Structure formats: C-alpha cells, structure tokens
Amino acid sequence: MGILRIGSRKSALAMTQTRWVIEQWQKRVPGLSAEVVPMTTRGDQVLHLPLSRVGGKGLFVEEIERALLEKRIDAAVHSLKDLPAQLAPGTVVGAVPRREDPRDAVITRDGRPFDDLPSGARVGTSSLRRVAQLRRYRPDLAFIPLRGNVDTRLRKLAAGEVDAVVLAAAGLVRLGLGDRITEHLSPEICLPAVGQGALAVQCREADEDTRRSLVSVEDAAARRTVEAERTCLAALEGGCQVPIGALAEIRDGHIRLAAMVGRPDGSELFRVVVQGEDPAEVGRRAAADLVELGAGRILQETREEAELGG
Ligand SMILES: NCc1[nH]cc(CCC(=O)O)c1CC(=O)O
Q: Which of 8, 10, 11, 13 to mutate to test the pocket of ligand 1 (most atoms within 8 A of CB)?
C-alpha cells in the first residue's frame, strides 16, 4: 500500500478523531503511512439549522462516500452516531475501533450539579432524544435549541445564553475537554444515541489491502454493541424526528441492550432491556418489545406527520 488517504470532516472533533484512528493504526501496523484529507460536507454548511429540518444525518456522509467510491480517498473516519443505517453500496465499515465513553455529559455554567439547577434554568440541546428524556426527569427546566460544533456550544454557555449544555462525553474527552464535564448522565436517566462514543472507519468493499490492515484497529466488543444498537434503530424505522436512545454493553460475554422511544414533549416514554448472545437478534427483539409496549403508536404517528409534510 502507498500513502493511505483518510477523509475527514473539518471540525476539530472530526479531525481529532481521524488523527486518533491513524495513530492507533500506525501503532499496530508499523510503517503504515497515511494522510488526512479534510472535506466539507453539505451538513457542515447548514450546521446552524436543527438536524430534524435539514434532512437528516446522511448529509455528513454522502460527499465522503462519493470520494471513497471515486478513489479520491481510501478510508474515512466517522462518528458512528452520524452514520446512516444504509451505507453507499460498494462501501463497508472496515473497522470499529475501541469505543470511548458512550454517555451524555452535562456542563453547567457555574459547576453546580444538574440536580441542583433551579427551576426554569435554561439547558441547551437540540437533541430530541435528550430533551424527551431530561424533560421527564426535570420537567421544570427550560430546554433551549443549541446547535453548532462543540466549541460553539461551550462559547454560548460561557456567554450566558444557557445555564447548562448536554453533550456527548466522548466528544469532549477526545477534544481534551473532559475536565470541563460537570457530571455524566446515568443511562438510567438518559440513554445515549445509537453508536455514541464509537467511530467507524469506512472503506471500499473491494479494497482488500485496506480491509485486511484495518482489522488491526477493530475492537470486537465495540462492534457487537454498536451492531445491537444499530439493528434496533433500523428495525424501529424511526427517522430523525423520533427520540430514540440505546446502549448495549457486554457483560460476562453476553449482550445487554437498553433502548427507548419517546415523544419529544416527554409525555410518553417506553424503555426495554434485552439480553442475549447475537447482537442482531438482541437488537430486533428490543425493537419488537418497544413497538409492542406502545412505541409503535409514536413511530406510526410520526411517519404520518412526515408524509403530510408537517
Ligand atoms: N451530533 C454531533 C456529534 N456527533 C458525534 C458527537 C460526539 C462524539 C460521539 O458521540 O462519538 C457529536 C457531538 C455531541 O453530540 O455532543
């Protein structure tokens, strides 16, 4: 292999993640040479708009997939939670590296714990999933839409636009901002997004050399947990308008998957825990259990609203 070209979005987080993967890769494959190819995606150009309005997460991936298929790059590093269920035909997830902390984290402006935020305090997050779950825990807080890169959100917190922000712990840790975290949200209170904290290295299906080499950075446990979560998400066919959270863990070799579907206003929330051996089977069973519990109604209503263009 010559010099591998690794595509990455240009945000500080994306670049850090890409460099981290290359570093892990080079540790295991001495002599491997790789360069980062920074890319702008359509998603990056509409960062200020709510994700639920700009047509979903595929926006961040399409252009990178085209570059892969046109052989302008050989691999691309993505946050797994931004990766759509269906990859472009001819591409595969060549590796899922070791997963970072999957939990959500709260940063309050004055450092007081989340539970001590006063009634009416403004919590910045645009995630329907975070709002749906946190509204049930603290119905007295005001949830304020807040988008942009991690540093933009931290700046808005420092400027007093909000009293607290909720972000993925993994992103903060990777950016060296882990010490800013006030506290981690227990998955009992707030289940993370599917794939949160995990990365995917995407490559061409037919590129045997790259695929063989990528096995060196593969983390089998991370792959299994992410597969269980993503199978559950795909089986729910939820789209990005429905609050969905899921977290799988390996316990004594078994998979334990917790998953939730809720209404954005927090008025209803269904949660299940499923255990088993096969990640895909566990994921499908969690989705079926959720639908049976009542989540089917929420999913159906959201689909009808989407069809009406609402
Ligand atoms: N939605 C954007 C996004 N995509 C990945 C991360 C963080 C890193 C990760 O979850 O792996 C973030 C920021 C956030 O949600 O706080």
A: 13
Active site amino acids: 82
278-299 pLDDT, tens digit per residue, is: 999 999 999 999 999 999 999 9
Amino acid at 126: S
Q: What is the CATH number of domain 4-97+199-218?
A: 3.40.190.10
Question: Strands 34-39 and 4-9, how do they pair?
Answer: parallel
Residue with tokens 């209170």: 189
Domains 104-184 and 229-307 share a fold: no
Q: What is the ipTM of this complex?
A: 0.93
Atom of ligand 1 nearest to the CA of 102: 10
CATH superfamily of the 104-184 domain: Periplasmic binding protein-like II (3.40.190.10)
Closest-CA residue, ligand 1 atom 11, reads: 197
Q: Among the atoms of ligand 1, which is closest to the Cα of residue 100?
A: 11
Nearest CA to ligand 1 atom 2: 82
Integer angstrom CA distances of residue 93 from 90, 96, 210, 214: 11, 7, 11, 10
Fold of 229-307: Double Stranded RNA Binding Domain (3.30.160)
Ligand 1 site residues (CB inside 6 A) read 79, 81-82, 167-168, 170-171, 196-197
Determine the distance separating the centroid of ligand 1 and the alpha carbon of 59, expressed in angstroms. Answer: 15
Instruction: Break the chain into its structural domains and give their ranges.
Output: 4-97+199-218, 104-184, 229-307
Write the CA distances from 218 to 64, 94, 141, 212, 228, integer angstroms.
Answer: 21, 8, 41, 11, 16
* pTM for the whole structure: 0.93
